[in-house]
Every structure is written in C-alpha cells, then in structure tokens.
Amino acid sequence: MKIATYNVNGVNGRLPVLLRWLQESAPDVACLQELKAPQEKFPEQAILDAGYNAIWHGQKSWNGVAILAKNAEIKEVRRVLPGDPEDIHSRYIEAVVNGITIGCLYLPNGNPAPGPKFDYKLKWFERLTLHAAELFASGKPVVLTGDYNVMPTEIDVYKPERWVDDALFRPETRAAFAKLTAQGWTDAIRKLYPNDTIYTFWDYFRNAYGRNAGLRIDHFLLSPHLDKRLKAAGVDKNVRGWEKSSDHAPVWVELED
Prior knowledge:
Elements: E1 2-7, H1 15-25, E2 29-33, H2 44-49, E3 52-57, E4 65-70, E5 75-78, E6 92-97, E7 100-106, H3 116-137, E8 142-147, H4 171-181, E9 186-187, H5 188-192, H6 208-211, E10 218-222, H7 224-227, E11 230-235, E12 251-255
Parallel strand pairs: 1-2, 7-8
Antiparallel strand pairs: 1-12, 2-4, 3-4, 5-6, 6-7, 8-10, 9-10, 11-12
Keywords: Hydrolase, Magnesium, Manganese, Metal-binding
EC number: 3.1.11.2
Family: Belongs to the DNA repair enzymes AP/ExoA family.
C-alpha cells in the first residue's frame, strides 16, 4: 500500500500538476494540504475521473486538507483537530482507509516569531500531540502525515544557521516535534535514511530548487504496527521541477500488505 502526502499550494490552480502526479505515481492514498479553495470549489469530478474517491475540508483562500483513495472507501472520522472549538482553520482531517487510520494535517507556519501566530502554532502542536497520544494508545495502525512546518534537526534544512529565528526551526518548534515523536511514532524517512540530505520544500526565490537549497517539512509518522510494515519511502523531487508546480514535492511511503 502506497500512501503519499502533497502540499499542492492551490488545488485548482495546480490541478494539471496534481492529476499528472496521481497518474504517474499512482498512490493508493494521497493526503493533500493547502487546497486554498472553499468547500464547494474542490475539483471533485476531476479527482473522481482520475480514479480517486475524496473527502475534503475546504476554506476560502487559505488552508484546506483532503484525503484521496484509489478505488477504496474512505470512512471519515473527523475534520477538526480536537481541543479548541473556536479554531475555524481547516487544517486537519482524519479517516480510515483499508483498515488504517490516516490523519492528514497542515500545521500552522507560525511566522513571525515570537508573536500571536507563533503562539497559535505551539498551541495547535499541543492539541495535535494530545490527539496523537489517544490515537497511539488505541493500538490501531495509524499514519499522521502532512505539512508539519517543522525542520526537526539541522540535517533537515539547507544552511540551518540562517533559520535559527524562524518559526519552523525555533527550539520550541523542534522540541514540540520531538515531544510528539517521543510517544513512539516512527519518522519514516529518517528510519530508512537516517543521515541523508532529503528535502520536501524549495522556495520559489533565489533558484532554491536548482541549488537544492531546501527544507524537510513534510513528514510521515507511523504507529508501531506500520513501522513494522514500512518497506520504502521517498520524495518525488522531480515534481517540484514541473511547470507551475507547488513549492513542495510529494512524499510517500510503501507499506507491506
């Protein structure tokens, strides 16, 4: 079973890129972030025509998350991260596909830091960690994947010294990610490639993609059930080089059936 995550940076504006990637990569499940489309503007028919069922939580202009499944039923569990009834951002959606609970998330950026946006990021992280603990304790096979907006270590960022004050790399952010993974989750990419330079995001400016001046901010966290089934993982880096592509590249894992 192949599960992928992809921050599409606008699902309608980059629909040709998304559809081409779905055809070429053919994941069984695809988690999308930054739809940047209200609920009624999600391109459901185009996704269906590509062979995928979909659930999504849209939001006008910003955010938005979706889970797609190829020829499989998607049983939605929730579309809001618990813990703050006043939070209206569409940043989390959770479903069961083929017996696996999949949480698709788009963690806040948090810049400028310090400030209210950074405070919101850390509070959202706390809510995610609490919910993740419940999922982990359930004993079910669980994937938590998406754009975490965190570079966990210095190996995950090009020239880390330039990022010390950024919300994606501040000590509080990295500590929050470490606290989450310490519950027992496996960072799939780092399990298979503990010391490799691997990025999932390249800015549009300063030829970042051409220079491979990137960040690893899109992650797969696997519960112990799935850690045992992990057989491959990678980044479809070439997709970032396509015309009118997102500034993120798709990330994927393959699990033994």
